[in-house]
């Protein structure tokens, strides 16, 4: 992949590389510089403006000349981002790697190629990103999509077909946002005295409030007027004077205008959540990530697994959970959800594939159809056909009219994969509802992982996923989601956002700015009081709407369940010893924070070999790949870890041999040699000053250059601990 990116960059004047996460942006920049040091330099590492200019103005005859490279994403400072954008406009950067931060508002004629790493998850976003190239009269926008796995290949192929057919995703505008309504009505009152009926007509002329009910409108006015009992105990007071008899409302208090101007806005304040074991802080996570956690969820922080217990304010309490797979991967808060319209196109493509394969068509005939249907190259055609054929032979192909439910055991834990490529926002609703219904059936909670292509349930107890899906009725989904979200982290966090927008919590008052932590504590106290007022309280009602309609997609989830209820979509259950090929990425999600990238590739390859052996009916071959005494993913992970340990031990033996060769060349005395061998092994105590002084000289390059790079790198890494 990096070789391909490097070639594309060198063939063009200025390249913009889009990734889907900030971490991936940093990784791509690092890898390009590590793999091709003669070609890439980063002027932003320079110590001064003069050094920057010197790097930019390298002589043309220097071969090869370094291409200046930069990273751009939301976690970098504003100054850094502006600096990158300025250099890009001047044509001083050969390549910029970014996440979503350069999708909009960039008009730079120098960009002649856009590279998308992985699916952008929607047709509109792909066109928007590729449209950053060719910003000149009569120029053509050129983009390349680099796929990362077989699911990504199918997704991107269907996406390109939709883009060429001008099937752009539908836009969904949030409707009846009651917190925004509260802010707007307060602003109207601050401006002048208002008539209740006049304000109603004004509000409902706006498209997002065209379907607003009079009941919700009156409830918001009552809240603003302070007529909701019990909130004054939480220091939430009336902000307008409402005269129902006269049919008017106006501002209340001399500070009304100041309060409005210093608290207006819809973008919530955000901060990192501190993660603690007892009273000891071990790190931080983003709020977007924390709101996805529920008690019992496992995530990785600093290379260690922790189980989430509860949160208070901006602190999350956890406990170590070694040996358990993460249920919430670290990248999930950044990843873009698959657009539902694109998901439906993928489902339709799968339907055609299933029809051909189940109708007895051979690979050549299926390949001919794929070639005519998708604008992809021959390698992609072969890969798509092989992927579909393997899934068909091992299990069933899930599609628009069929939900595949796989069951298999992993040691003492039962796994159920529900295959449904509806997009993560829809799957989030259905998965939570299924988990809640299953808990009512069995009395036990389950571990839950959600992706764009389905979701996974894990438990040591029986899981009745198919029965739970059949029980779910579209009309009951709103109430069911309220129950499922009642004590969730996402409800706590999103209620704070809605409370701040509706001015229930003031971010700034009389010149004092309240921290996000104080806002969160206040919101949790208010939420406890609001729950007693019932579901009809407008700001609580808006919180549930925002979660289920904006963060999730309850409307399309209801459509899926309606098709299940009507029998239009069939539920097919399969049991086996292994997940089907379409389930690999769903299973792998729990390992993404534990395995390095190359180990993940090997992990999937070994699963693939085992499934191919099962398909071929070659039991002996399958047992050669993995003894079938008691197959578990933990066992596979342990074998992978053992292989890594052996590699490390081999590498350390190699480093010791390199050291012995180097010390003979320079005549290193026995005492320094003894301590250098200890340092390779990672020992960090008991080193004399004479050795540490020698090590400093070596790492500065003042000792004769008879030392191999691998050896110096290990001495440098371990030497930092001294």
Arrangement of strands in the largest sheet: 2-3-4-1-5-6
Rg over CA atoms, rounded to whole Å, is 29 Å
The CATH homologous superfamily name of the domain at 2-146 equals: P-loop containing nucleotide triphosphate hydrolases
What is the arithmetic mean of pLDDT? 83
Sheet of most strands: 6 strands, parallel
Give the total of beta strands: 21
Termini separation: 38 Å
Pairing-aware structural class of the strands and helices?
alpha/beta
Instruction: Just give the CATH class of the domain at 2-146.
Output: Alpha Beta
Please count the helical segments.
Answer: 28
Strand content: 5-15%
Give the low-pLDDT segments: 43-65, 619-631
Q: Briefly note the CATH topology name of the domain at 2-146.
A: Rossmann fold
Helix content: 40-55%
Q: Quick one: overall form? A: globular
Q: Give the CATH architecture of the domain at 2-146.
A: 3-Layer(aba) Sandwich
Task: Report on the architecture of this protein.
The structure is a single chain. By secondary structure, the chain is α/β, with parallel strands linked by helices. It is 49% helix and 14% strand. The chain is built from 28 helices and 21 strands. The strands form five sheets. The protein has a six-stranded parallel β-sheet, with helices on both faces. A five-stranded mixed β-sheet has the order 11-10-14-13-12. Strand 8 and strand 9 (248-251) form a beta hairpin. The longest helix is centred in the C-terminal third of the chain and has 34 residues, at 633-666. The two termini are 38 Å apart.
């Amino acid at each position: 992949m990096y070789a391909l990116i490097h070639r594309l960059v060198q063939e063009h004047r200025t390249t913009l590389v889009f990734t889907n996460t900030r971490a991936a942006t940093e990784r791509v920049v690092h890898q390009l510089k590590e793999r091709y040091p003669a070609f890439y330099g980063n002027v932003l590492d320079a110590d001064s403006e003069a050094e920057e200019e010197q790097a930019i103005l390298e002589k043309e005859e220097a071969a090869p000349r370094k291409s200046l490279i930069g990273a751009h994403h939301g976690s970098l400072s504003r100054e850094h981002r502006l600096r990158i954008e300025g250099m890009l406009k001047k044509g001083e950067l050969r390549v910029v790697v970014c996440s979503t931060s350069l999708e909009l508002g960039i008009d730079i004629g120098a960009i002649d190629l856009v590279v998308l790493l992985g699916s952008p998850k929607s047709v509109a976003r792909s066109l928007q990103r590729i449209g950053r190239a060719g910003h000149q009269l009569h120029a053509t926008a050129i983009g390349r999509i680099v796929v990362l796995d077989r699911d990504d290949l199918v997704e991107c192929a269907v996406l390109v077909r939709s883009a060429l057919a001008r099937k752009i995703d539908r836009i969904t505008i949030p409707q009846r946002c009651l917190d925004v309504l509260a802010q707007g009505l307060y602003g109207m009152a601050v401006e002048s005295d208002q008539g209740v009926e006049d304000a109603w007509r004004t509000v409902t002329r706006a498209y997002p409030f065209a379907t607003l009910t009079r009941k919700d409108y009156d409830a918001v006015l009552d809240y603003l007027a302070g007529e909701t009992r019990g909130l004054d105990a939480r220091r939430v007071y009336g902000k307008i004077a409402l005269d129902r008899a006269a049919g008017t409302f106006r501002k209340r208090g001399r500070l009304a205008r100041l309060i409005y101007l210093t608290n207006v806005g819809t973008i919530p304040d955000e901060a990192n959540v501190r993660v603690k074991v007892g009273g000891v802080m071990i790190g931080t996570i983003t709020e977007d990530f924390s709101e996805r956690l529920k008690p019992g969820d496992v995530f990785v922080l600093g290379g260690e697994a922790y189980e989430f217990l509860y949160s208070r304010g901006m602190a999350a309490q956890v406990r170590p959970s070694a040996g358990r797979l993460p249920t919430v991967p670290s990248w999930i808060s950044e990843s873009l959800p698959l657009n539902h319209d694109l998901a439906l196109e993928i489902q339709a493509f799968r339907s055609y594939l299933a029809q051909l394969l189940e109708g007895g068509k051979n690979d050549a005939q299926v390949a001919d159809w794929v070639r005519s249907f998708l604008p992809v190259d021959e390698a992609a055609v072969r890969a798509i056909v092989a992927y579909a054929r393997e899934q068909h032979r091992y299990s069933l192909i899930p599609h628009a009219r069929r939900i595949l439910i796989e069951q298999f055991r992993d040691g003492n834990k039962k796994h159920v994969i529900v295959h449904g490529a509806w997009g993560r926002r829809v799957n989030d609703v259905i998965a939570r509802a299924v988990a809640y219904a299953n808990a009512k059936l069995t009395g036990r909670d389950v571990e839950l992982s959600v992706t764009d292509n389905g979701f996974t349930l894990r438990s040591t107890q029986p899981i009745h996923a198919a029965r739970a899906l059949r029980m779910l009725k579209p009309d009951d989904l709103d109430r069911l989601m309220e129950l499922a979200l009642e004590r969730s982290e996402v409800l706590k966090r999103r209620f704070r956002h809605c409370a701040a927008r509706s001015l229930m919590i003031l971010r700034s008052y009389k010149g004092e700015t309240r921290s996000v932590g104080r806002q969160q504590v206040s919101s949790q106290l208010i939420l406890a009081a609001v729950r007693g007022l019932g579901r009809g309280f407008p700001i609580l009602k808006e919180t549930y709407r925002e979660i289920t309609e904006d963060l999730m997609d309850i409307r399309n989830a209801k459509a899926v369940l309606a098709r299940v209820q009507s029998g239009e979509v069939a539920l097919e259950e399969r049991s086996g010893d292994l997940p089907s090929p379409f389930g690999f990425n769903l299973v792998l999600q729990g390992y993404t924070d534990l395995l390095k990238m190359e180990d993940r590739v090997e992990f999937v390859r070994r699963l693939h070999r085992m499934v191919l052996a099962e398909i071929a009916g070659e039991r002996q071959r399958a047992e050669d790949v993995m003894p079938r005494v008691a197959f578990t993913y933990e066992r596979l992970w342990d074998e992978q870890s053992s292989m890594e340990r052996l590699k490390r031990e081999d590498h350390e033996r190699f480093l010791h041999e390199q050291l012995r060769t180097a010390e003979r060349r320079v005549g290193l005395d026995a005492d320094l040699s003894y301590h250098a061998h200890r340092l390779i092994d990672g020992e960090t105590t008991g080193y004399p000053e004479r050795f540490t002084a020698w090590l400093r000289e070596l790492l500065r390059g003042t000792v004769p250059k008879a030392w191999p790079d691998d050896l110096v790198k290990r001495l440098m890494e371990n030497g930092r601990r001294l």
